[in-house]
């Protein structure tokens, strides 16, 4: 994989000796095409990869060098990564992010599966309206409803300063997950469900025994998206957790981390990479489900 | 329902229908409860609050349309915030779609190292927005950022990026193009779905590269392009985190508990409508005006959504 980038196409040895005739012309055109495409690809890859590289290189620089605009570290200071973890609060932010993302994902999946199943399979009056409403909630800017919601959580339920106002609503069907799962369930052939019904399976049994195992890729995609959404969420924690640093998540804490260490770019870049790391790791283990999910939301329907 | 006979159905049938209705309600109940509690109620409450003067301490006072006239005609930051949001909606969405389609097409043509390139183009999309923004504020830092170091070494005059009111929004666009991975995947899937025979037929008819794109590729990917445009518009109207974090960090202020920062650094050039809602509601405690402003955002978003419904864009089921 890496060899392609290290040896950009167009190395002289690959250009064939000049020849004539239509076959040779076609061959030459193919090679030129290959060179053009791969040159473009390398240029694009630089745009996407270099930010990660610069961030990483800065994260291992010494304090003075990180402020100097240097591109390459003179000495490699791995200790920054330890220092970041020793920063007061950083471990709590991890704990809170894992709680929000883990519990939020679990509740979302459990509540979205039956709803998506009903919308994909049952025929009932108002089915289309229900779909339109689900899509409308997907389109609603969170800022539109946040003020009354905040007042309820803060003044009636006294849960402001915790992550519960963010986690509890996940038990009531997230619109995006319902939509994605429904799209996936529509791709399962009807015959499977009908034959289950013929065998005397109730709807709940059909759902748990037949649909859930078959829909595993779709459920995995929903779970991943929701995990990432919670992990990346900034607005929610800013509204509900800001007043209590013990409830900050990584996404919310990172910004204040930078402000507190206003000159330490090396520490900040190490922290930035540590916030990115879990999503990157999860992606490498679940690439297929993820890409399938993205495609499903956009293309099928 | 249509397939049932008119008149009173037989008792057995009625029982079956009632059972089916209960079953449907049961399966839908998580969403029905959630829809009422976390969408219906707050939306109505927002409308109600928009007619009140309320600072969350003293009891609310009914003021009629005062919040609305204040927001729409008097509030000094409404103009810049709306202007920035619309600028981002137009420029960011257009560039994202063009760039995403370009990268998607490139990816379908790559023969060597396809896996590597796809992963490299996709990964930035996964970076948490706050982390990506912090990284870009560092990368584009005018004094010591690596990008300006490189530009300087090449003899190219470097802008001040997030610190220059003219460059702050373009810098946000650059950040958003870096995270183009989702669009790339969607376009890639759409491009791979175009029937190969049509390209061969077009080639036989003597179509060049442009002709093949114009007459074969474009017609079959238009629904996806429309989908990308409209979801992009709706998402960009909610644009918040990156603008806020970039503005705060580039301004270099230290954020302590209770400190109130005017958002939109520099010169309100990165102030968006959602940021203004937050600032009105949670920093100035002008709850009524914040609710009125958020409803302006809601109307704009719904206008875009109804476009989506009309254009369908492959979203709604065709079988009904």
TrEMBL record, chain A:
Localization: Cell membrane
Family matches, as InterPro entries: MetI-like, MetI-like_sf
Keywords, alphabetical: Cell membrane, Membrane, Transmembrane, Transmembrane helix, Transport
Keyword Transmembrane: yes
One protein family per Pfam: BPD_transp_1
UniProt keyword Membrane, yes or no: yes
Domain ABC transmembrane type-1 residues, every copy: 94-286
Transmembrane segments annotated in the record for this chain: 31-57, 98-120, 132-151, 163-185, 206-229, 265-286
BP-aspect Gene Ontology terms: transmembrane transport
Region (Disordered): 1-21
Top-level taxon: Bacteria
SUPFAM superfamilies per record: MetI-like (SSF161098)
Main location: membrane
Topology in the lipid bilayer: Multi-pass membrane protein
Composition skew (Low complexity), residue ranges: 12-21
One GO term describing the cellular component: plasma membrane
Protein family membership: Belongs to the binding-protein-dependent transport system permease family.
Family matches, as PANTHER family: ABC TRANSPORTER PERMEASE PROTEIN MG189-RELATED, ABC TRANSPORTER PERMEASE PROTEIN MG189-RELATED-RELATED
Stated name of the protein: Sugar ABC transporter permease
Source organism of this protein record: Streptomyces gilvosporeus
TrEMBL record, chain B:
The keyword Transmembrane is annotated on this UniProt entry: yes
Cellular component, GO annotation: plasma membrane
Keyword field: Cell membrane, Membrane, Transmembrane, Transmembrane helix, Transport
GO terms classed as biological process: transmembrane transport
Membrane association type: Multi-pass membrane protein
InterPro entries: ABC_transporter_permease (IPR051393), MetI-like (IPR000515), MetI-like_sf (IPR035906)
Domain ABC transmembrane type-1 per the UniProt entry, residue ranges: 82-308
Subcellular location, record wording: Cell membrane
Sequence intervals crossing the membrane: 25-52, 85-108, 120-140, 172-194, 215-234, 287-309
Any Pfam family: BPD_transp_1
Family: Belongs to the binding-protein-dependent transport system permease family.
Name of protein: Sugar ABC transporter permease
Originating species: Streptomyces gilvosporeus
């Amino acid at each position: 994989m890496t060899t392609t980038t290290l040896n950009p196409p167009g190395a002289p040895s690959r250009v064939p000796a000049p020849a004539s005739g239509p076959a040779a012309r076609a061959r030459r055109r193919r090679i030129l095409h290959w060179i053009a495409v791969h040159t473009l690809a390398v240029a694009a890859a630089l745009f996407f990869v270099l930010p990660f590289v610069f961030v990483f290189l800065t994260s291992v620089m010494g304090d003075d060098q990180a402020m100097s605009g240097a591109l390459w570290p003179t000495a490699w200071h791995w200790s920054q990564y330890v220092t970041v973890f020793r920063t007061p609060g950083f471990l709590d932010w991890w704990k809170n992010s894992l709680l929000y993302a883990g519990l939020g994902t679990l509740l979302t999946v459990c509540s979205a599966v039956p709803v998506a199943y009903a919308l994909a399979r049952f025929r009932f009056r108002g089915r289309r309206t229900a779909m339109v409403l689900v899509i409308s909630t997907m389109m609603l800017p969170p800022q539109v409803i946040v003020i009354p919601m905040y007042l309820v959580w803060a003044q009636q339920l006294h849960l402001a300063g915790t992550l519960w106002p963010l986690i509890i609503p996940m038990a009531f069907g997230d619109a995006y997950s319902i939509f994605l799962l429904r799209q996936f369930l529509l791709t399962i052939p009807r015959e499977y469900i009908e034959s289950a019904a013929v065998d005397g399976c109730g709807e709940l049994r059909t759902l748990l025994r037949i649909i859930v195992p078959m829909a595993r890729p779709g459920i995995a995609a929903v779970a991943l998206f929701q995990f990432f959404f919670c992990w990346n969420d900034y607005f929610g924690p800013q509204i509900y957790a800001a007043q209590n640093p013990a409830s900050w998540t990584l996404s919310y804490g990172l910004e204040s981390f930078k402000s507190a260490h206003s000159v330490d770019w090396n520490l900040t870049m190490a922290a930035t990479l540590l916030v990115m790391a879990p999503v990157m790791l999860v992606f490498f283990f679940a690439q297929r489900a993820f890409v399938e999910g993205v495609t499903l939301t956009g293309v099928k329907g | 329902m249509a397939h049932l006979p008119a008149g009173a159905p037989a008792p057995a049938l009625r029982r079956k229908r009632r059972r089916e209705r209960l079953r449907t309600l049961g399966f839908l109940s998580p969403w029905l409860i959630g829809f009422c509690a976390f969408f219906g109620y707050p939306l109505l409450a927002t409308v109600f609050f928009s007619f009140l003067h309320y600072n969350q301490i003293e009891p609310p006072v009914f003021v009629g349309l005062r919040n609305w006239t204040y927001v729409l005609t008097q509030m000094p930051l409404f103009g810049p915030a709306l202007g920035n949001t619309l600028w981002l909606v137009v420029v960011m969405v257009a560039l994202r779609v063009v760039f995403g389609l370009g990268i998607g097409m490139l990816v379908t043509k790559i023969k060597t190292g396809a896996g590597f390139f796809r992963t490299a183009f996709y990964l930035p999309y996964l970076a948490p927005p706050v982390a990506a923004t912090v990284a870009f504020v560092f990368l584009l830092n005018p004094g010591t950022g690596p990008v300006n170091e490189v530009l300087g070494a090449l003899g190219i005059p470097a802008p001040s990026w997030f610190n220059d009111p003219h460059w702050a929004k373009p810098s946000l666009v650059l950040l958003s193009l870096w995270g183009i991975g989702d669009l790339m995947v969607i376009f890639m899937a759409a491009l791979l779905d175009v029937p190969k025979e049509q390209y061969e037929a077009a080639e036989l008819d003597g179509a060049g590269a442009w002709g093949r794109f114009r007459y074969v590729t474009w017609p079959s990917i238009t629904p996806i392009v429309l989908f990308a445009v409209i979801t992009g518009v709706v998402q960009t109207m909610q644009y918040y985190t990156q603008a806020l974090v970039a503005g705060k960090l580039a301004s270099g202020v230290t954020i302590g508990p209770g400190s109130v920062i005017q958002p939109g650094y520099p010169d309100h050039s990165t102030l968006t409508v959602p940021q203004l809602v937050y600032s009105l509601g949670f920093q100035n405690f002008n709850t009524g005006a914040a609710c009125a402003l958020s409803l302006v955002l809601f109307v704009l978003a719904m206008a875009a959504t109804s476009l989506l419904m009309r254009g369908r864009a492959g979203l709604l089921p065709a079988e009904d």
